[in-house]
Each structure stands twice: as structure tokens, then as C-alpha cells.
């Protein structure tokens, strides 16, 4: 793992107060990490020792949980998140081509963020909107029955 | 009294993605503008026919509008609700005959279904507990708590023949009995709403459209097994389901269906929501428990089963969303009624998520034992574009493919296992002649390989090896001997893995090898993809993927 960056913009006090809210609560690790990520967009590595201390865990246990679950990120992500669904229905209706198209348009690979921090491109196992496959999720909004033209429009809208 | 009409706008995840949120607001505004006092605008959860979204239904007439956008709103309100002339251009069109079908129950997709688990989906507002109650909701809970002993509840569920809808099909009544008989100071029940199978969306729809049905089932399970706390473990990819459960729990608490001394019965019960964090294996019950406890979601060997030692080491009952939603009707209408539905060994109905190369994609609930052909052709409307059916994949990454040559296969636990697939959670993805079966197997393996938690070697290493071979085959770089190696590894992983993920992940490979071996051979020997899908082997006339 990268060494924790000392980013001044991270409000460590806020992280401490999130941890404080759940102090002593059993089983709180995942909800705490979820809350930090919801507020910061990712889990700043500097938060790991704070969480560990507050919940009386080893930092390795916190790190272990973060790396286990696909939805936890330890690097900053873009302002807009595009997730291409890779469910079976989407797959047989062309999700692969959709992903390639986005990679080409944004000039990044799956899992990467554009240098201007505007877009992060990810995939998701299945969002359960199979009847409208292929789907993508843009900032938590589902867009179904995607094709090249609709992708174009979505990206344009995002730029405006 | 004037005929009061209600316009129900679907607000399920599928319809919302087509802009039905704005349609709902616009309908309310338009109805208010024209001063139609006999019309109420309300919303429902998923009707299960997402492909036709946005869906708007007018009750009690039963008029069913499809593909509704915000531009259609003035016409629906002006012509239909005010003028009495339904808008024909928005009716569902039968893909086979091209005929416009105005009413819900006349549409083939719905006509041939029997909805028990989905009984309220699309018919009530999931955020209003009164509507659930008006459909008979919480009557079963009253009956169970006030008129039956826990043992009688278990006996009724046992007699109904209900089996778990989460995949393995274990008899629910027996599972409850194990937990009931376990001695402990505390017990738990858990609703498994992880629905990780790609291609499955039944549980999402039920939770979004009828959350109280699941909660009522969960409270009943708690009463029967002697648990005072329940958890609903929902995957984080379903934000709307989480929201609706949260609202439903609040309402249930206000009405005294949750909390202390429920309905004066002396039984206490509380429900908590736990959100997943994106790991398929957490649907496996022991991994799910680890995840609730805030650990890495890794399975452990069983026994001990959760019914003996689960959450915090206490007896824990884990049931799927659909299993729990089946419980209230069983208690209310009785085991005898329930057991008339289905086959001798598979009772009740099954909910399938029909998708892929099919005209009517959506949620289908049919009695167990319904022939595959009825589902694909009568309900699903067949294959689009005049293409031929090649296979139907059931059970997601743990399941297999049923070839088109056995179209009358009855869909129930036993038969699907016999033909080399599984019932699984109910995903049903239809494939036509343009779908490459080797590529399908590769797709599922790429999923399970990524989701393998890495705890046991057969699954961790075996999935990777199988995936590499399958990738080689689809790229035209494989040798004849690779097929034997693939088969051997598949067998080993199936027999030696620790949990259900590893034990079932070779199924897509084994079943495609069983029915579509010639496709594998064409890739290897002729460097050709018969479906013309594999990119490296594509013929120059090149179709789009
Ligand atoms: C890898 C794996 C994933 C699973 N995913 C789910 C799931 O998403 N939902 C579910 O209800 N059961 C799932 N199961 C089955 C559960 O372990 C368990 O059998 C089920 O929740 C029991 O409920 P039931 O008796 O009502 O079917 C999964 C099992 C395995 C091995």
C-alpha cells in the first residue's frame, strides 16, 4: 500500500467524531468505514489508525476489512462516478462493448480516474436492473438500455 | 359515491431510471391543475415488467400504460382521467400479434403467472403501511402471535412444504425447528437480502415493492424460533431497497408490530438493517455472519451450522427474502392451501428474473414445476429478432445451462439439478444462437474468480486455472488436452472447496461441456467461434458484440 499521504484537506476531527459516535459499539467497523467513505468519497489511509484505536482493533484488521470489500476505496475518486454493470444480462447484451467505449472516450481504464479528477470509471457485479440491460450507473442514477449514442449524451450533459 | 380512481406510477429502480420520478410529479400537478377530485395519484414498487417502464396503472379499471414519459402526462390526464378515453398508443403491444392490450390482467406476461410472493408488488404503495394492511397484511402475524404457539407455527410451515428460496432449497420448517430446539440465552434471525447473483433481481423488487411482507415473515420467524432480534443484510448496491425497508420498519414500530410486547402477546422483537459492502461471498450464510460482526466476509466450515452457532455464537436462522415473504400467506391461508401449488417435492411458487435475449424481460412468478417453454415462450414472448433459442442459464454463477433441446424441463429443484443446473436464487438468462457458450462459461468464471475469497486453495487456485484455460479457448490459443485439464480441475474444485461458492462455481463449465462440447471443440480445433461472438475468432463480416 502507498504510504498515508498527509493531506491537510482531510478533516481528521470529523473522522474522529464519526468514530466517537460508534465507540464501544460492537460490529461497528463496517458502518464506520462506510460513513467515512460517504463523507470523504474514499477512506483516507490516515483514518485507519484512528478507526482502529477507537474500535479497539489492530490497524491490520481495519485494513483487512477495507481491502476485502469491493466498495471501499483508499484513493480519492472523481467528482462523477460511472459504473458499468457487468451482470449476466448486461453481459449478453453488450456490457463489454459499453465499457470499451467509455474507456476510449475517457481515455482511462476500468478502475481509473481522469487526470482532472472529473470521472472515475468502475464496474459493478450486478445492480439488479437486468430487464433494462445494458445498464450503467452515473452518480447513483441508473441509466438503462445504453448504447453508444446515449453514452455520448450522458457525457455531454456531465460536461455542461 | 363517485368512482374514485387511483393512478399508480411505478417507482422501482428500473422505472425510475426511465424518468418515472418526474412522471409521478407531473401527474400530481396535472391532476391538481384540472381539479380532478376523484383521482388520486400514488406510487408503487416494481411491477416486474421493467422493460416496459415507465409503467403507470390506473385502478380499479386496470388500465396499464407502458413507456410513459413526462410528455405523455397531459394526454393521460386530459384524455383518460378527465375525458374517459384511455390513451391507446401507450398500451402494451403484444410482441407476437402487435395488438394493443389495455389491461394488466389481459397481458400474457401477467396472465400466466401465479403471484404469491409478489402478491402486492406493483399493487400497493410500499411506503404506506395502511395499504399493506388493507391487503391483509399483518393478519398472519396476529394469528401467529395470538392464536398459535411457536411449535404450531413451525408445524404449519413444515406441513406447507416451503423450501428456502435462497438457493439450496432446505426445508424452512425444519431449519426453524433446529433453532427452536437449540438451548441458548439469546437467538437471532437474519434475512438474507444480499442477492449477489448477477442476473437476479427478485429480492430487490420484493424489498422495493413490498417490504412489509418480508418484515412480517421475519417477525414470525423470530417468534417461531425464539429470537428477539432480527437483522436484514442488504447489499449496498440496492439503495432504494434500504430506504424502503427503513421506512417500513419505522411504520411497523409505530403500529406496535415491532418492539416490546407485540400486540399484547408478550413477545419482543426488534429488527436492524446491515448494509453489505460489495462482496458476493457474503451471501453465504457463515460469511454473512462474519460480515455483520464487522469482519472480512469469509465462510467457515459447517458444522456447526448457524442454527447451532451463528451470530455471536448464538443459534441463528438465516432465510432468503422470498422465503420470508412466503410465510405470511402460509400462516394465513394454511399449509394445505400452499401445498396444493407446485410439485410433490417442490411446493409453492418460484420467482424468476427473466432476462437476456427475450422479448418480455422481467419478474415471473409461476408454480414450481412449470415447463421452461411456458416461461420462455408464453410468458416471455420468445426470442427477439426471429432468432433461435439456444440455452437458458439458471442459478447464476452457481448454475448451469439448459439446452433448447429439452424445452419442456419442469422448473423445480429436483429437475434442474438432474439436468446439471440448479434452481439457485432464480436468475434466468436466455441465450440465443448469437451467444457463445464457451464465452458464457468464461464470463461466470471471471466473476467467481474475482469473488473467491481466497480462504481455501481449491477455489482460490482452481478458479484462476479454469479461467485461464477458458480465456485461451475463446482466444483460439488452446490445445485439445486443455479440455481434459479443464474437466479435471472443475471436478476437483467442486469436490474440495470449503463453501458453496467453490463447490458450485464449476457448474457453468461442466454444464456447457456436457451440452455444448462441440462449441469448445470448434474453438480449439477449427479456431472458430460458432456463435461468431469471440472477438479473436470473429469472422470478418463482424457483427457487433
Ligand atoms: C456463494 C454463495 C452466495 C449466496 N448468496 C445468497 C444470496 O445472495 N441470497 C440468499 O438468500 N442466499 C444466498 N446463499 C445461500 C445462503 O448461504 C443460505 O443458504 C440461504 O440464505 C438460506 O436461506 P433459505 O433457506 O431461505 O434459502 C448463497 C450461498 C453461497 C454459497
Question: How would you describe this protein?
Answer:
By secondary structure, chain A is of the alpha+beta class. Chain A folds into two domains: 57 residues, Arc Repressor Mutant, subunit A; 77 residues, Glutaredoxin. Chain A has seven helices and four strands, in the order ααααβααβββα. Chain A has a four-stranded mixed sheet with strand order 2-1-3-4, with helices on one face. In chain A, a hairpin with a 2-residue loop joins strand 3 and strand 4. In chain A, helix 1 packs parallel to helix 3 and helix 3 packs across helix 4. The longest helix of chain A is centred in the first third of the chain and has 12 residues. The N terminus of chain A is likely disordered. With 545 residues, chain B is α/β, with parallel strands linked by helices. Chain B has four domains: 103 residues, Glutaredoxin; 211 residues, 3-Layer(aba) Sandwich (Rossmann fold); 84 residues, Ubiquitin-like (UB roll); 93 residues, NADH-ubiquinone oxidoreductase 51kDa subunit, iron-sulphur binding domain (de novo design (two linked rop proteins)), CATH 1.20.1440.230. Chain B has 22 helices and 17 strands. Chain B is globular and about 75 Å long. The structure holds flavin mononucleotide (FMN). The site of flavin mononucleotide has 23 residues of chain B, from strand 10 and helix 20.
